[in-house]
Design a protein that fits this description.
Helix content: 40-55%
Strand content: 15-25%
Shape: elongated
Order of helices and strands: HHHEEHHEEEHHEHEEHEEHHEE
Largest sheet: 5 strands, antiparallel
Oligomer: single chain
CATH class of the largest domain: Alpha Beta
Number of strands: 12
CATH topology of the largest domain: Heat Shock Protein 90
Distance between the termini: 67 Å
Radius of gyration: 43 Å
């Protein structure tokens, strides 16, 4: 392009010089020389015009190629003009680079579209009015070819709801909703992700029932088997008017065993009934620090440290039930620290400013929980303790579920455990 600019500049200088020379010859009345200079001036101007027109045609072809996405164009030159050839090669090179970039972008677009089309989460891009501008295959299967997002989902986004119930063709779906706003070409848009969790909930529910049934079966069979065996033994013995003292002792021992196992089975069933009959919480406004102060009164042990909120907050909870949850967690923490020479239990309240919620945690430096056990500790009747009933933590989880809250556990063997309650 530098060569072309120089070439044009030389033509302009030549035209200017010939124009001045023609004027001088006109003043000197040298008509023949003036005619030659005028012819030369015309030829120079015509050559410059022709060269400029070829340049403009190549520019038009380049812009048309870009406008109509026709990157197969090239710029061959039939004349033996090195300057125009250089410009032609430059344009061809630019178009080739543009073509390669478009190809790369197209490959990326196809890659991301195929990738997003395979995920089982519905993804949509909408404008402020709720018009759908793009959606993946999962979203298409969820909303067909609708160009407008359903009003219930739009309302959920505006109210920051995380889970909504959406009805499609008479089928109720539980859907998690999350959204992110972004600016594209100066226009605000919204990227929405929707996931149908109904099947996940059903699968988890089925797994929970299967685990519970396995535990119930195990516990009941452990109690029933010896009762049946002893009953058969007693029934096989013939009763006579005079019972031998030795036989009486054996029968008495068997009956005591039956009584003990029957009582244990009755206790197990009573625990199960207690677990399935948790009353609805009676919600009242409770001070977090006041709740912790009452817990402190129950435990004067120096090993237990309570850290309240710097600025007190209120919770709408059933005080009695939440106290029971904390008591269960503290009791478990004390049992975990039983073999520790320097036990330390921390009950701490934290206010999460970004989530506008309070978290209560019970942390101990006890023996910890094995990784393979950690995901089972909230299953009813599952316990690793010789004298445990296995309902303490499951009871806590159910109480918190009734409060629309949740509990999570973190643990490291020989370092301790942390149970955290998140109040929503």
């Amino acid at each position: 392009m530098k060569r072309y600019s120089l070439y044009v500049a030389l033509h302009i200088i030549a035209i200017a010089g010939l124009s001045v020379l023609a004027y001088k010859l006109y003043e000197a009345q040298l008509w023949f020389s003036l005619l030659l200079v005028c012819l030369l001036l015309t030829a120079t101007g015509t050559h410059l015009y022709t060269m400029q027109m070829k340049y403009l045609r190549m520019v038009y072809r380049l812009t048309d190629s870009i406008r109509f996405d026709d990157t197969s164009q090239s710029f061959p030159v039939q004349v033996k003009n090195k300057v125009i050839q250089e410009v032609s090669e430059e344009f061809s090179s630019v178009l080739k680079i543009f073509r390669n970039r478009m190809l790369d972008e197209e490959v990326k677009q196809q890659y991301y579209e195929n990738l997003l089309g395979k995920v089982d989460t519905a993804l949509l891009v909408i404008d402020k009015e709720g018009n759908i501008e793009w959606m993946n295959q999962t979203a298409i299967s969820l909303f067909s070819t609708s160009k407008q997002i359903p009003q219930d989902i739009l309302d959920a986004i505006k109210s920051n709801s995380q889970i909504i119930t959406h009805t499609k063709n008479g089928t109720i779906q539980e859907i998690t909703v999350s959204s992110t706003s972004f600016i594209a070409q100066g226009v605000e848009k919204l990227l929405i992700s929707l996931k149908d969790i109904q099947s996940v909930l059903e699968r988890n529910e089925m797994e929970a029932w299967q685990k519970l049934i396995r535990v119930l079966t195990h516990e009941i069979m452990n109690s029933i088997t010896p009762i049946i065996s002893l009953s058969e033994t007693l029934s096989e013995r013939e009763l006579s008017e005079s019972v031998v003292e030795k036989d009486y002792a054996v029968m008495l021992q068997a009956m005591q065993t039956i009584h003990r196992r029957s009582k244990g089975l009755l206790s197990f069933v009573e625990n199960y009934r207690r677990l399935t009959r948790i009353p609805q919480p009676q919600l009242t406004v409770v001070s977090v620090n006041g709740l912790l102060a009452d817990i402190k009164k129950l435990y004067s042990d120096s090993a237990i440290e309570i850290i309240p909120l710097a600025i007190d907050k209120n919770l709408e909870i059933d005080r009695t039930q939440i106290e029971q949850v904390l008591i269960n967690l503290i009791r478990n923490a004390k049992e975990a620290c039983a073999t520790n020479t320097d036990p330390h239990i921390v009950i701490k309240a934290v206010y999460l400013q970004d989530k506008k919620q309070v978290e209560l945690s019970v942390e101990d430096n006890g023996e910890g929980i094995l990784p393979e056990v950690l995901d089972k500790i909230f299953i009813p009747f599952y316990t690793t303790k010789a004298s445990g009933s296995g309902i303490g933590l499951s009871l806590c989880k159910q109480i918190l579920a009734l409060h629309n809250s949740r509990i999570r556990a973190q643990s490291e063997v020989n370092k301790g455990s942390v149970f955290t309650i998140s109040f929503r």
